[in-house]
Amino acid sequence: MQTGMRGRDFIGDLDFSKEEVETVLDVAWDLKRKRALGEPHAYLRDKVLAMMFFFSSTRTRGSFEAGMAQLGGHAAFIESRTTQISHGDTEREIGDIFGRYFDGIAIRHVTWGVGNRYLNLVAEASRVPVLNMQCEIYHPHQCLADLMTIIEKKGRDLRGKKMVVSWAYASSYLKPISVPQSLILQMPRFGLDVVLAHPPEFQLMPEIMDQAREQARKYKTGFEVVDDMEAACQGADIIYAKSWGPLLTTQDAAEGKRIQDKYQHWIADEAKMALGKEDVIYMHPLPADRDIEVTSAVLDGPHSVVFDEAENRLHAQKAVMALTM
Ligand code: CP
């Protein structure tokens, strides 16, 4: 267990070592147990988290805000459009000034080519930890909750288990690529054999792919890329199927939608779930395009763990905040 995480930023999934992630999970389970038993756990009394949103959210806002209150502190919801950022407040000003007001700065900024840079510049200027509530490259707190859920469902020894991270069709909007990127970076460290499935236009960032391959090599796990959802799902223990935009191919929304619409058969349905092991689980960070990205029969069915996964956002994030702030 690592005890020296106070003051640390958490922007990319690999910012925490494997041992530090294990520490986060240990604390998360302790906090989950305490909440279930109604035991007070006010580790952040009098501390305040700034939550800056440049993009909409249901779970991330709710879980960070509830989590800070349960830890005895407070979370200030700051919607970027209500700030003076558009009138000139720079990353340096936000980092330096908010670092003097708050005990942590959490940011969601998913704009392509902008969000991750923004978080890092704020972090450089801030004296307090910067926590990534999702940028265009990473969604690390979602990934911690996903890992926690997988261990709860499949046990601590994940070696030899097959996790499919698959693209799925959505019609609502071009979703960020941060969730699959975080998954392929973090999961090999915990022994999972990852199979990434997507149509050719939906590639992930080459530098993230290189890092994922490096993690798989280091931890001696499988890492395979295929362009066939059915083939990927064969024998799977975990099917994590969600949409993301063809952002490495085009950032034009209309062109992206035209590309995306070619692949409407990439839906997580009962037939694909049946290709997995008998106890296969279905995961999705939500929100999902119901009956387009995933059928209701799967989303609400016996293999789905999406509500436990969403709950674990709360416990994992409380652990990160308690350890870093
Ligand atoms: N999974 C997730 O990040 O949900 P929100 O976009 O609702 O925060």
Q: How many distinct folded domains?
A: 2
Percentage of residues in strands = 5-15%
Structural class: alpha/beta
Can you tell me the CATH architecture of the largest domain? 3-Layer(aba) Sandwich
Number of strands: 9
**Strand order of the biggest β-sheet:** 7-6-5-8-9
CATH class of the largest domain: Alpha Beta
CATH topology assignment of the largest domain: Rossmann fold
Percent helix, as a range, is 40-55%
- The poorly predicted ranges are none
Give structural notes.
The chain is globular, with a radius of gyration of 19 Å. Helix content is 40%, strand content 14%. The protein has helices at 18-37, 59-70, 91-101, 115-125, 140-154, 178-186, 206-218, 229-233, 253-260, 270-273, 296-299, 306-324; strands at residues 48-53, 74-79, 104-109, 130-135, 162-167, 193-197, 223-226, 238-242, 281-283. It folds into 2 domains: 13-139 and 313-324, Rossmann fold (3-Layer(aba) Sandwich), CATH 3.40.50; 141-310, Rossmann fold (3-Layer(aba) Sandwich). The strands form 2 sheets. It has a 5-stranded parallel sheet. The chain has 325 residues and is of the alpha/beta class. Bound molecules: phosphoric acid mono(formamide)ester. Residues 57-60, 134, 142, 285-287 line the site of phosphoric acid mono(formamide)ester (CP).
Q: Helix and strand layout, with pairings?
A:
Layout: H1 18-37, E1 48-53, H2 59-70, E2 74-79, H3 91-101, E3 104-109, H4 115-125, E4 130-135, H5 140-154, E5 162-167, H6 178-186, E6 193-197, H7 206-218, E7 223-226, H8 229-233, E8 238-242, H9 253-260, H10 270-273, E9 281-283, H11 296-299, H12 306-324
Parallel strand pairs: 1-2, 1-3, 3-4, 5-6, 5-8, 6-7, 8-9
The structure holds phosphoric acid mono(formamide)ester.
